[in-house]
Amino acid sequence: MVPRGERAEPAAQAGRGPLSSASGGLRPFLGALRARRDLVEVAAPVDARLEIAEIHRRVIAAGGPALLFTRVEGSPYPVVTNLFGTAERVALAFGPRPGELVRAIAAMPERLMPPSWSKLWGERSVLGALSHVGLRRVRGAPVLAAAESPPDLRRLPALTTWAGDGGPFLTLPLVYTEHPETGGHNLGMYRIQIYDATRTGMHWQIGKGGGHHYAVAEARDEALPVNIALGGPPALILAAIAPLPENVPELLLASLMLGGKFPMAANPAGPLPVPANAEFVLVGEVPPRERAPEGPFGDHYGYYSLKHDYPVFRCRALLRRHDPIFPATVVGKPRQEDFHIGDFLQELLSPVFPLVMPSVTGLWSYGETGYHSLAAAVVKQRYKREAMASAFRILGEGQLSLTKFLLVLDRPMDLRDFRAVLEHLLARADFRSDLYVFSNLSMTTLDYTGPKVNEGSKGVLLGVGEPIRELPREFRGEPPGDIREARVFCGGCLALSGPSFAEDPGAPVRIARHEAFRDWPLLVLVDDAEAAVRSVPRFLWTVFTRFEPAADIHAAGFEVARHHVVYRTPVVIDARLKPGFPEELFCDPDTARKVDARWKEYFPGGMEMGDSDRASL
């Protein structure tokens, strides 16, 4: 539904027109979805606590449409979810133009050398597009239609998505800050837990630009002004989560994608400008040295992230449209909306990687692992061990520095085909020299496999050159008696299930030394081998979200040579759930029964129901 007074642009114009226009907000996208019959209105009354989220999860698990909930109990505002729940909707939101422009920009340095007027003239279309990148100030703005001061944030239909969550959260917040000394701006997306009418948490994880701004302000004993926008053009959401270098403003990426200067309006309630076409903007500041418990929160790793102290945002005004729509998303086991956006971003930015890292010709992070847990790269190997230099370069670049495990190849291949990538590596990796584990490093806040929050280790496995072994593809051995199941995932990799970690923490070493597994370079010890190999997404999620390299990599034997650990195969990854690890996300029984009973009420015209607990796994 597009509320009265807002013009819905026709879908036929969506590819390069209004959805790629700096003057557009969320409304043209909703209009395009409705015209394609890819937006369904739910007129039945629904609860923002747990019910909306479970409806959303079942719809997205079935590949269903975007959802507009028009009657949310306790709030005057409608909620829209699942905007980016399929690759097709993501493509509709952003169109082909951004990808074409990024590829053209990435190719310019090579095409322009040596420079000449004729070559510059040949790039006039790209240069013309770049001349329209930037910000523009506007006087009037839809988001300034109403202002509430003091605000009551409890009237917002913020979702509580899982029964163990610490409360309601803003799940698509666009957090805008400016550096206290340089004035450089940052737009990020950090979950926002609503505490009461005027206070929220501010989940600034390590390595986030807004958190860097706050650290400077806190060192100066100053509050950091903050705006939290909700809604606006889809490009604004994409820019907020893009893994850009720290000194590249996200709003410039939004402007580039939209094809025009991004409109910002003067803020009547604070010092920072606001996105003119947002639905809501929360205006306030984060005081120095004030912390409050934030979480738990069911996160995109498929488990709860736990309660920790974080800075507090104090809201002094709420700006909004006359009839705003509240955008939200739900995260959990892959694949959710963040997966489709993340993969689109990787494809969009991939032409830039060779410019920033010339020896890296391909790079892919796996969304099924939460992105930071596993990445693969194709690099140039022009001299011995150059691949390792490229690995260090990747692990030193922005958010890529949080990568937990990196696979490195030197032959072109489709990195999205993980089974083929792993086979390629296992056929070539000499574990005596090609497996590196680095301990006592930082790790993403959402990964709880390390000894403490934000602490852990990294691993790098090289698979370069020609094959050095034939990979076994069928297991015929007689496993030890405590191994319940042995399943082949791919050539050279065998998934095993046996005793739990609590029952036998030392099982991996004993398994690695057993004669039955002598020919297998990689064994993965999991709680349920049959489930782990059911699909590639399931394997990725099960293995790489549940092990930490320094603690959970074992081998048939090892020695230290020249301060390097030399591993003797088989190598075993212990991906069993460990004591103290956060709970896996499942819908609570009461909400599941409620949604079961009301499904036809939500969708009287019919709607396929997916399995929310399994998702795409």
Description:
Helix content is 26%, strand content 24%. It has 18 helices and 29 strands. The strands form seven sheets. Strands 5, 7, 8, 10, 11, 14, 15 and 18 form an eight-stranded antiparallel sheet that branches. A five-stranded mixed sheet has the order 20-21-22-24-23. A five-stranded mixed sheet has the order 25-26-27-29-28.
Give a short synopsis of this structure:
This protein is an alpha+beta fold. The protein contains 18 helices and 29 strands.
Structural category = alpha+beta
Summarize model confidence as the mean pLDDT.
Answer: 91
From the alpha carbons, calculate the radius of gyration and give it in angstroms.
25 Å
Q: What is the 3D shape?
A: globular
State the end-to-end distance. Answer: 32 Å
What percent of the residues sit in helical stretches (DSSP H or I)?
25-40%
The largest sheet is: 8 strands, antiparallel
* Strand residue percentage: 15-25%
Question: What's the helix count?
Answer: 18
Low confidence ranges: 1-22
Count of distinct strands:
29
